[in-house]
Each structure stands twice: as structure tokens, then as C-alpha cells.
Amino acid sequence: MAGKHKIAIFASGTGSNFEAIAKAAIGGRIDAEVALLVSDRPSARVCEVAKELGIETFAFCAKDYDSKQEYEAAIVERCQMAEVELICLAGYMRLVGETLLSAYEGKIINIHPSLLPAFKGKDAIKQAFNYGVKVFGVTIHYVDMSLDGGQIIAQQAFNYNGYDINELETMFHAVEHTLYINTIREILK
Ligand code: GAR
Questions:
Q1: Which atom of ligand 1 is nearest the CA belonging to 15?
Q2: Can you point out the beta strands (E) in the chain?
């Protein structure tokens, strides 16, 4: 009997995308089970959300490992134990390395809050806002060794002409959650 697709979400912070995707899975809006949360910040809010939702978590501190290769090997082991088919990065603030990429080739996707290739890296919303951008957007792309590189899967643009970065961030999150859920649904088809 074919079961639900098992996905892992990797996150370092608040976890609003994690929460939206996990609730979509629990509510049957995507044919998936969030089988694992991977976080490099054990104290992040996202770990509390996972606990509340009863989602298995692998939270680690990079400094407890000798190398990136070593902690990524531990991540791969946990993903394989949980039979993960797709990895969704959602605010995971680390570059993915060779160990993880080769184990899950073509099966790692990321969400970034800009219309890539514009505004790569950290604080992309603030970068665009400070630049005076009027058309903002969100990108979902496959992950490769580069920073916010990799083939684009989906993009959603929206206009914002205001001056309140908090209001803008709220708009971003709403767009991100819908786009990520819809994209995961399409990929799993
Ligand atoms: C999201 O805005 C996501 O696009 C961004 O981190 C935020 C995480 O929010 N990712 C990147 O900037 C990746 N380069 P969340 O923890 O509330 O889901």
C-alpha cells in the first residue's frame, strides 16, 4: 500500500513556514507527512512548534561535530531512518554541503524571500526594502552548492509601496506559505 510521501523540513528560526507546511500535511492539504524537523538551533522557536505538533526533531549544534561532513552525515542518517523522500529548507541558515547533496541529489528545495537572482543571502527582505524595491517576490528553487542558486521551480511576485517593513514581512510570510505548500504538492505528484 502506498503511504504518504515523507518529507523533512530544515529550519533555524521562527518556523512559520515549517508550521504552515506541517499543518497542511496534518490537514490533508498535501499528500505528505512531515516525518522530521532538522534544526541547527535547538533553542529556536521552530523546535517548540515541532514538539507541539508531535513531529520528530533532530536538533544539533554544529560545534559538537568536527566538520560539516560529520554533522551532515548525522543528518543523512536521521533522514534515511525516517524514510525521507524530499527535503524542504525553510529558513535553514547554513549552506548545504556535498555530503547531504550527494545523498539527496535533486531532492532538496529551498525558499528564498526575493525574486532570485536578486538579493541573495541573509536579510533579503531588508536588502530589497532598503533598495527601494516596489515589486517584491518569493522564489523556490532546487539546492546546489551555491548560495541561493540552483534551478528555479516557482516564483511569486507582489507589489508593496508602503514604508513599514513589519507589514512587508507579514505579506512575505503569507505569500511564502501558500507558494511553498502549492509547490510541494506539485513536486510530490
Ligand atoms: C523565510 O522568509 C525564508 O524565505 C527565509 O527565512 C525565513 C524563515 O522564516 N530564508 C532565507 O532567507 C534563505 N536564504 P520562518 O522561520 O518564519 O519560516
A1: 16
A2: 5-10, 32-39, 57-59, 86-89, 108-112, 135-142, 152-159
